[in-house]
Design a protein that fits this description.
This protein has 10 helices and 8 strands. The protein has 311 residues and is of the alpha/beta class. The chain folds into 2 domains: 209 residues, Rossmann fold; 95 residues, no CATH class. Strands 1-2-4-3-5-6-7-8 form an 8-stranded mixed sheet, with helices on both faces. Strand 1 and strand 2 form a beta hairpin. The protein is globular, with a radius of gyration of 19 Å. This is Proline iminopeptidase. It is an enzyme of class 3 (hydrolase). It holds the Pfam family Abhydrolase_1. Its EC number is 3.4.11.5.
Length: 311
């Protein structure tokens, strides 16, 4: 992508209350179709590289770093950081930009957040493309962090993930151990817990890709926010999804990788049984993984976002 296309139209730290400022950046065509990109994690933040998903001559792309994530301030802050706060922040951004309706794109937890937002604010969303949708049910959480699911496939990696917890520790005990480790006074202990958390997730997101051990401080913030959300059952996200799914009124295309171990396609199929909305379509990407570093998933998402513009 040429450098001039990556130049932001506008960037701001928008005050959203309780001491939080969310980072918002606009790119692309100022008169184009407004589309909000919602990153995963929670806590991952956006990157300029994410713009590769969009035709910037067609779309006005809004990148939003959620509370505590990316360049939002204060980084890693957990106080006043819940699902409801994230939903309210999205509306605050929309109102600040004076956009009446927009499209959504998001992956992993960002897809979860988008789907809930579209259900709570049905008149605000034109259409959305989501991928690697995470279902934050007890089964989904257990498949990701428990001894069944992904742990039964990646046995050695899981043993490294739980190495500093007692054998057969419950999920609650495991999360408590990680919270203690991530807030430990020793830098080395914090780094160890951070890297083991991130290594496990990277193993599942794209099994053949090695973990980038570059920005440890950023990774610690991400791990801390992810842990905070999962330990609090994502603040009722599963219940909200279950109750509100029939209410959204926009075309929604979900793409799920066949080998997505973070958000298994089987979990999504089970969730959608009996909850189908005629506006929702799902495509399973054969041979696809969770992360967009996987060429199959990236191509499918780019094509779906391009097709959404034609609607």
């Amino acid at each position: 992508m040429p450098d001039h296309q990556r130049k932001a139209i506008r960037r701001i730290w928008l005050s959203v209350g309780q001491g939080h400022q969310v980072y918002v950046a606009q790119y692309g065509n100022p008169e184009g179709i407004p589309i909000l990109y919602l990153h995963g994690g929670p806590g991952a933040g956006c990157a300029v590289e994410d713009l590769a998903l969009f035709d910037l001559s067609v779309y006005q792309v809004i990148l939003l770093d959620q509370r505590g994530a990316g360049r939002s301030r204060p980084r890693g802050e957990l106080q006043h950081n819940t699902l409801q706060h994230l939903l309210s922040d999205i509306e605050a951004v929309r109102n600040w930009l004076n956009i009446s309706r927009w499209m959504l794109a998001g992956g992993s937890f960002g897809a979860t957040l988008a789907l809930i937002y579209a259900a709570y604010y049905p008149s605000r969303v034109i259409a959305q493309v989501l991928w690697g949708l995470f279902i934050p049910s007890p089964q989904g959480i257990a498949a990701l962090y428990g001894t069944t699911g992904a742990a039964s496939v990646f046995k050695q990696e899981y043993q490294q993930f739980v190495a500093r917890s007692k054998p057969q520790a419950s999920l609650a005990e495991l999360f408590t151990d990680y919270r203690t480790g991530l807030t430990h006074q020793s830098v080395d202990v914090r780094r160890d817990f951070t890297m083991r958390w991130q290594s496990w997730e990277m193993t599942l997101a794209y099994p053949s890709q090695m973990l980038d051990r570059g920005n440890v401080l950023f990774s610690q913030s991400l791990a801390s926010i992810e842990l905070y959300y999962v330990a609090n059952n994502y603040f009722g996200a599963f219940e909200k999804l279950s109750q509100k799914l029939p209410l959204f009124q926009c075309k929604t295309h979900i793409l799920q990788g066949e080998f997505d171990w973070v958000c298994p396609a089987d979990e999504l199929h089970r969730f959608l049984q009996g909850r189908q909305n005629q506006l929702l379509t799902m495509t399973e990407i054969k041979g696809g993984y969770h992360a967009l570093a996987d060429a199959k998933m990236a191509k499918a998402v780019i094509n779906a976002i391009r097709e959404m513009a034609k609607q």
